Structures are given as C-alpha cells and as structure tokens.
C-alpha cells in the first residue's frame, strides 16, 4: 500500500526557488529604476515658495529640490548604479552592493523628509534679494514634491531589500569575459588555397605566409 510523504521533492524546491528568483528580480528592477527616476524628477520640481521684502514690496521666491538639498538626487544615482552593479558581482560582493542599494534608498527618504520643512534655501535667496544678510523668507509654504522624492527612496529601499533576500538566486554577467588564468585554445587558421587570390590576401592580412615557406 502506498503512502503520501510531506517531504518536498528536490525538483519542486528548485523550480520554486527559480520562480521566486525571477519574480523578485523583475520587481527589484522595476522598483529600482522607477524609484531612481521618481527621486531625480522630484528634486527638479519646486519644493518651497515664499516672499522677501524688497524696497517696501513683496518679492516672490521659489526653491527647487536641488536648491534645498542635493542628497536625494546624488543617492538616487548611487542607487541606480548599485542596481546595475548587483549583476556584475557574486557572493559577498553582491551582498555589499545590495546593502548599498538599500542604504541609498533609506538615505533618500531621510533627506527628502528633512528637506520638506527646510527654509534655509529660501532664506539665502531672501538675503540676496534684499541685500540684508539677516533677512528671512516670509509667507513660507511647501509643496508635496519632497514626499514624492521620499516615495522614490522607498522604492529604492525595497529593491535593495529584495536584492539582499533573493540576490543569490539572480543571474550574473557571463564569466567568459573574466580572466581565470586558463589558456585559451588557439583557433586553427583556415587552409590557404594558392589558386584563390582572395585566400592569399586574407592570409597576408592575418600576418601569415601563404606560401608556407
């Protein structure tokens, strides 16, 4: 009489790991690329606005994300580079690069959230516009773009966490371009037919003596 075992078959385990690797790879690539693009786009938008008093009147001022802080854009580029580098390394190197990707996302989130209430960039512009170094911006308000940049950072962080968890299942760049010290077999030169002028010219181009002398 047959019986049913609860022990999974090795082949089913391997196929399940392969599926998990493919899915996590697709999600990580999507999250990483989209997160970097969102963060970079958000830093180019207006984050804050206000006014400065100039000659008795109100002078409007605006500040983009890059005016407030350059950290989110820089970390987004680092995260995108780390996402690409994950496929160029193996084992311990892949873990380090995946951790860098996750840290880039976390740093982007932190910098964007801190910049959401920052007024130093507009204060500097108010001082320049009024000619008074002690001047500060008035009627200060902020937009939602810093939080959009934070969302991009969250996506980068998610891509890094997926790389840490499933990176060992992801493919790596082909090793055929790596030097391992093994001598490569020399390709045998094609035979030269002395009655075919084109073969003689090809042999001369290769630096060979077509006469066989």
From TrEMBL:
UniProt key word Membrane: yes
Compositional bias segments (type: Basic and acidic residues): 193-213
Residues passing through the membrane, by range: 25-43, 70-89, 96-116, 144-164
Source species, domain of life: Bacteria
InterPro entries, alphabetized: Trp_biosyn_TM_oprn/chp, Trp_synth-assoc_CHP
Region described as Disordered: 177-213
Keywords: Membrane, Transmembrane, Transmembrane helix
Name of the molecule in the record: TIGR02234 family membrane protein
The species this protein was found in: Streptomyces violaceus
């Amino acid at each position: 009489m047959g019986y049913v075992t609860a022990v999974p078959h090795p082949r089913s385990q391997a196929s399940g790991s392969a599926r998990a690797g493919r899915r996590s790879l697709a999600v990580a690539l999507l999250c990483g690329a989209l997160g970097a693009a969102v963060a970079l786009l958000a830093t180019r938008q207006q984050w804050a606005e206000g006014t400065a008093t100039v000659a008795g009147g109100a002078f409007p001022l605006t500040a983009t994300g890059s005016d407030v802080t350059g950290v989110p854009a820089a970390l987004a580029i680092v995260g995108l580079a780390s996402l690409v580098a994950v496929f160029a390394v193996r084992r311990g190197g892949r873990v380090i690069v995946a951790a860098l990707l996750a840290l880039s996302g976390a740093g982007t989130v932190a910098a964007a959230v801190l910049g959401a209430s920052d007024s130093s960039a507009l204060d500097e512009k108010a001082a320049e516009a009024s000619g008074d170094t002690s001047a500060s911006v008035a009627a200060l308000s902020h937009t939602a773009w810093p939080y959009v940049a934070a969302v991009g950072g969250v996506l980068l962080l998610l891509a890094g966490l997926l790389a840490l968890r499933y990176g060992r299942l992801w493919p790596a760049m082909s090793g055929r371009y790596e030097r391992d010290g093994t001598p490569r077999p020399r390709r045998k030169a094609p035979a030269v037919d002395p009655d075919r002028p084109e073969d003689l010219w090809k042999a001369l181009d290769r630096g060979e003596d077509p006469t066989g002398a």
